[in-house]
Description:
Elements: H1 2-36, E1 40-48, E2 51-56, E3 59-64, E4 70-75, E5 77-84, E6 91-97, E7 102-108, H2 114-122, H3 124-146
Parallel strand pairs: 1-7
Antiparallel strand pairs: 1-4, 2-3, 2-5, 5-6
Amino acid sequence: MDILSKVTVKQLVITLLLFIAIIIFFTIKYISDNLLFQPHGIATVYSAPFDVTMKYHGKTKEITSTAKGVEVPLPTGEYDVTFSADGFADHTEKMSIKDKGTYKLAFQLAPVTEKARQHLQENSLRYDPVYQSVYSIERETYLQNNLNPLGAK
Length: 153
């Protein structure tokens, strides 16, 4: 009788481990099918101020940029993204995210309070790379839209 109870406990443990393994397998499969291998791109955001709220497609994401920007992975598609921060006016940008592509976005939110104005002024050196990125992206866009490639007529 002691042997029978040991076999039953052993069978129960094996059955439980098999059940857990099946749950883990299907969880990993769901994540890989729906999240990891979904076509996506990267939005690189350079913002002044660095801490902003990003809203798109009914989702809200708190992001903290740096002078080097912050990469935000997004599924492919068209987006109207609104960025906001306390004391600043909202900024909305249209973005087109392509599979394995990068969309660069640089902006300074317009201050609407004295505290926000002071913040930008006191941290102007920290935000200088953001301002340079704004200029660089605007220049790149202008050149792409207004100059013909060499040899094109």
